[in-house]
Design goal:
Layout: H1 2-33, E1 87-94, E2 103-104, E3 110-113, E4 119-122, E5 128-132, E6 146-147, E7 153-156, E8 161-165, E9 171-176, E10 186-187, E11 193-196, E12 208-212, E13 218-223, E14 233-234, E15 240-243, E16 248-252, E17 258-263, E18 273-274, E19 280-283, E20 288-292, E21 298-303, E22 313-314, E23 320-323, E24 326-330, E25 336-341, E26 346-347, E27 354-355, E28 361-364, E29 366-367, E30 373-378, E31 384-391, E32 400-401, E33 407-410, E34 413-414, E35 419-427, E36 439-441, E37 445-447, E38 451-457, E39 466-471, E40 482-485, E41 491-496, E42 501-511, E43 520-528, H2 534-541, H3 547-553
Parallel strand pairs: 37-43
Antiparallel strand pairs: 1-35, 2-3, 3-4, 4-5, 6-7, 7-8, 8-9, 10-11, 11-12, 12-13, 14-15, 15-16, 16-17, 18-19, 19-20, 20-21, 22-23, 23-24, 24-25, 26-29, 27-28, 28-30, 30-31, 32-33, 33-35, 34-35, 36-38, 38-41, 39-40, 39-42, 42-43
Length: 555
């Protein structure tokens, strides 16, 4: 009896402990897969458990399910943007650059990644739905995600993995391909996911075209001779087209065997696109845009200025739009339709044009190497519709269009301490312009070690209150935005340069909606030194502390 009692007791204790352990494991398991932010614990949708599915899931039927809209990479939306006047509806700040493009699902959720291991899902009003950050250390996301019809989100990372996420932001699976994924995946009608790798760390063996099944198992891979940053396009017959930096465009059968390859004169870094008649368009850094027949023979080629790695997007009338030093519009027969001048020192580097159903083209630009970038809307006749300055580094993100005609695009910015980005939404609404570029007045020469007063002044076109930010050019700046000030009201600041030398003072302004002006600059020369005590330096770095005492000390 005692033995039976003891056995029963041990069984009950073991069962209780097992239940407790099971509860603990089930509680912490979601934490291992992702971080959901901005959700309610009582929400059935956010806590839904998605069953792993081995079903074949082709591309999602949504406004913009993958890079360049569809698996043919037309870059052409089925929705009109005729009412989009370029009003900034909202912007969402990230902790690093946004170089990949956003996509939009059938519910209007926007997905994108940033350059420092963060992947976001935003609601259509710009609020955070969830954030996934369970990438390997040091990973970057330059990949544009792809959405499957069952809601699965695929995205590549520089940590060598292709990730599959459930619609609630939990990890479904990931596959390690032992090489950097810089490009974007495309989904075939049978659910196969195709993408290329750059080869890091092994450039001799890791430059491959990959095919992965919807359950995360590898289907096949094919070795090329150099890095792949291009994104695959998929023909109606299932042929996969992708470029390589070994100068070839590859055409692959769905079983992983080579159909043909076409040699150009330099790197192919951008994606190809496919017209309705099967013509394949692709750009190369040998300065040409190529048009190929489906059998891989040359149809025509058009000379650009430098070459391109943007997608040759295809408008509703068959016009091909490609970026370089200008935005080029090429007729389907290879003749020039028009070119659009982007502006002084501007070009299109990686941003692939998005085209609306009414033929309006949207694209991002770079100003110099790292001096800023715009989003530009261009009418079908090649005239400018509107533009906005959205970056002080560059805009390499490719825009997308939702069912309401709203255009989304990422940007890359930096300040003295960190880099960051914004995802912007532009659509119909009240227009708001940034403040005008501030003026800077004050001495252009003086003694190092002495305070000098500088005044900053600007106006806002809509009369909004403004804030100023000043970079003194000596690795110091205002601690944050200073303000608010009325439109037209000036800001005066005293600054002390410790060492002799030539410095560039930079200033910009923003309004209450965070629309920022361009930088203004003033060169100043401080040829002579004055000994500075530590307390004066403290006052310089904290200009709003003890203002009366600082004035006394600096008379």
């Amino acid at each position: 009896m005692y033995y039976m009692y003891w056995e029963s007791y041990l069984f009950k204790k073991s069962l209780a402990v097992g239940i407790i352990l099971l509860f603990i494991v089930s509680s912490i398991t979601p934490m291992a897969f992702g971080y959901i932010e901005g959700s309610s614990c009582s929400s059935n949708e956010e806590n839904k458990i998605y069953e792993k599915s081995n079903s074949s899931a082709g591309p999602m039927d949504s406004p913009w399910p993958m890079k360049c809209h569809d698996n043919r990479h037309t870059g052409c939306s089925q929705y009109s943007t005729a009412d989009n006047n370029g009003a900034e509806l909202w912007k969402f700040k990230t902790t690093s650059w946004i170089e990949g493009g956003p996509v939009v699902d059938s519910d209007g959720t926007i997905y994108f990644g940033d350059h420092w291991k963060n992947f976001f899902a935003l609601n259509s009003d710009g609020s955070l739905k969830w954030r996934f950050d369970d990438f390997n250390y040091g990973s970057s996301i330059s990949s544009t995600p792809a959405l499957a019809s069952d809601g699965t989100i695929y995205v590549g990372s520089w940590d060598h993995c292709l990730y599959a996420l459930y619609p609630n932001g939990m990890l479904k699976w990931k596959v390690d391909v032992d090489a950097t994924i810089a490009g974007s995946p495309a989904i075939a009608e049978d659910g196969t996911i195709y993408f290329g790798t750059m080869g890091f760390p092994d450039e001799d063996d890791g430059c491959r075209i990959h095919a992965v099944n919807p359950d995360g198992t590898e289907k096949w891979d094919y070795q090329t001779d150099y890095k792949i940053t291009s994104d695959p396009a998929i023909g109606t017959d299932g042929t996969i087209y992708i470029g390589s930096m070994d100068t070839y465009l590859y055409a692959m059968y769905p079983n992983g065997t080579l159909r043909w390859r076409f040699k150009t004169g330099h790197y192919i870094k951008g994606p190809p696109s496919i017209a309705t008649d099967g013509t394949i368009y692709v750009g190369s850094y040998d300065d040409y845009l190529y048009a190929l027949h489906p059998d891989g023979t040359l149809k025509w080629k058009y000379k650009l200025k430098y070459g391109t790695e943007t997608n040759p997007s295809i408008g509703p009338d068959g016009t091909i739009y490609v970026g370089d030093d200008k935005l080029y519009a090429i007729n389907p027969d290879g003749t020039l339709k028009w070119t659009f001048n982007l502006g002084s020192n501007q070009d299109i580097f990686q941003s692939s044009p998005a085209v609306s159903a009414d033929g309006i083209i949207y694209v991002g630009t770079n100003i110099g190497e790292t001096s800023g970038g715009d989003i530009i809307a261009v009418n079908p006749d090649g005239t400018e519709r509107w533009r906005h300055r959205i970056a002080d580094d560059w805009v390499d993100s490719s825009p997308c269009i939702d069912e309401n005609g709203i255009v989304y695009i990422g940007s890359s910015l930096a300040n003295e301490t960190n880099v960051y980005g914004y995802l912007y939404a532009f659509g119909p609404g009240e227009l708001n312009n940034p403040p005008n570029t501030p003026t800077i007045t004050g001495p252009t020469s003086g003694k190092a070690g002495e305070y000098h007063r500088y005044t900053f002044q600007t106006t806002d076109p809509e009369g909004h209150e403004i804030y100023y930010y000043v970079d003194w050019g000596d690795d110091t700046s205002t601690p944050s935005w200073v303000g608010p000030y009325n439109s037209g009201e000036s800001l005066s600041l005293d600054h002390l340069y410790t060492f002799e030398g030539t410095y560039i003072i930079k200033a910009k302004a923003k309004d209450r909606y965070d629309m920022e002006s361009d930088w203004s600059m003033l060169e100043v020369n401080m040829p002579k030194n004055k000994i500075i005590n530590p307390f004066e330096r403290f006052l310089e770095n904290h200009p709003y502390v003890f203002p009366i005492l600082r004035k006394i000390l600096t008379r």
